[in-house]
# Entry
Amino acid sequence: MIEAVRIGFDPFLGWPVLWAVSGIAVLAWLAYIFLRGRAWLTRGLGLTLLAAALSNPSLVHEEREPLPSVAAVVLDRSESMDIGDRAAAARKAYDEVQAKLAEDPSLEVRVLESDPNDDGTHLYSALEGLMADVPRDRIAGAILITDGQLHDVPGKPDAEGVIGPVHSLIVGDPDRGDRRVELVEAPSFGIVGETADLIVRVDDPDGGEIDLDVSVNGGIPERVRVKAGEATPLPINIERRGENIVVVEAPPGRQELTMANNRTAASLAGVRDRLRVLLVTGKPNQAGRTWRDLLKSDPSVDLVHFTILRPPYKSDNATEDELALIAFPTEELFEAKLTEFDLIIFDQYERRGVITQTYLANMARYVTEGGALLIAAGEDFAGPASLARSPLASVLPAAPTGVVRTGEFVPALTEAGKRHAVTAPLEGRRWGGWMRYIESTAETGDTVLAAPDGKPLLVLDRVGKGRVGMLMSDQIWLWARGYDGGGPFAEMIRRVVHWLMKEPELEERRLNLTAEGDTARVELRSLMDTAPPLQIETPEGETIEPAWTETGPGIFTAEAPIDQLGLYRARAGGLETVALNGPANPKEYADLQSTIKVLQPLARATGGGVFRLNADGSGLPDIRRSGARGISAGGNWLGLRERGAYAVRSSSSQALLPGIAAAALLVLFLLLAWRREGR
# Structure
């Protein structure tokens, strides 16, 4: 304990009233002097005595317990510290600083290691949290051990408001450069089939021109040349509805700190402007209206429907202007505007000279170049006028045998159908029967729905860049009408149509990757009984090979622990996908060069210093105790303030101007003033 004596004041009237009364008294005294009052000195002494008495001075005796000053040491454990020997050097300095501070018994030391999974380096926020319960008059200072890349330094540090002095010990080689790719701007969505501009910038210490690889949804990369240091727009083709992952990668530069920031990614939502569908009904039939009603009920579909009622060869001896029917616009539909349609449906179409062989060849080319075709076969598909006997046959996955099977039967999912994303959700439901189907042989594609004899009913196939679906029965309308309990007509057809439109969620072979926090999760949908080996590439280029677990028919899942922010890539069986852990441009990788510039303003504002350590973490500055104010750093030393804080354990006081003594002195001064004025 330390004994101390001080003079304390406890005004009777409160400090505001006392100051107001004292001010009035001073003004009155000055007026008295101006009027040539004779007893100005005596009256001044009397007023002073009055003010002193009203302030109630006392002599205070205290027993004080000294309190230690508090210093903080914060270690940067962000991902940028994993570069080179930074982490080891920082750890060495961290331990040495703690050992030196522990030698001072008047100092309380608090230590903290930052969150390595945080987006960015937030040491100052961590420091504020560490010292939140410490009064400012007990803070000796703080020491940050980092590579200098902080993302939460106060913009305009206030010496009174911030913790200080804040010293920084910087590790890392300041002369090593780094090539990095930055996503400057990315749209959140784009129209399917059109392009959207992605703006990127490549920073490289050597400058010059750099070749970038740009890929969409894991496809074949496109090589683009950009100039270092300039924001460059990259036109991106929006391939599909839903999420489109665009990956931009730069090759290793001459100087590299890490490869994690040599690539970036953006997620663009593909939006369809309305789906344009052409429905051609070969002749009036029970299913025609069902198809039309289903497609018209979908607000995302813009339907063009033609029913052929009068083939060209039919003669009724009527002139064209007397006919109520319009001529089928074959040239406009299958020549001029063919590519404007997203999907073409033939419902029980028979070759009767309406659509020529040339136009059918155009349609085959339309499919291979990325179009979609759905055949709803009728009895005519088994005859000589079948589309299977036209140039369109080159893109059809099934060929008719020429036999039409009749009699009630119930369609069933095949093994492939139980695994295919289009039909797998339909398993386990009771379906009504059909009365007829066209016998065929599936030559390519996946048969997902079959008759009891195993003959295909629904076949899905990829042809070139496009897709084809074939329904080998004209009886699906029975489900729509509820015959024998009905069946999933609307659901199945919608799923088939969306598969033809390349919906990612309906892909029969699909690899999904999600990277969140400390876990990467992969899901594989396949038509195979076994899953191919899985590889996950980390942002640093390392490879992880977790094992698959089968969770359902054709569905395999895997998990792997991860500890980095950035872009992850998964590969399995020729499939590839990517996912981001954290933001597209993690703050941690924005600039990885070791620097003192970021922390210098904070050091100046708080009276601290910034010191660069040797490559192995040695070369610590001398640590001293400094005064409570002013600069606490020099060329080779840093100071922690000696605050001198204490806690009062006991206290006693004795009045210096008791009321009687003060009143007697005041009366004496008044009498002296009157006597002086009376002369």
Remarks:
- Residues 2-63+653-678 form one domain.
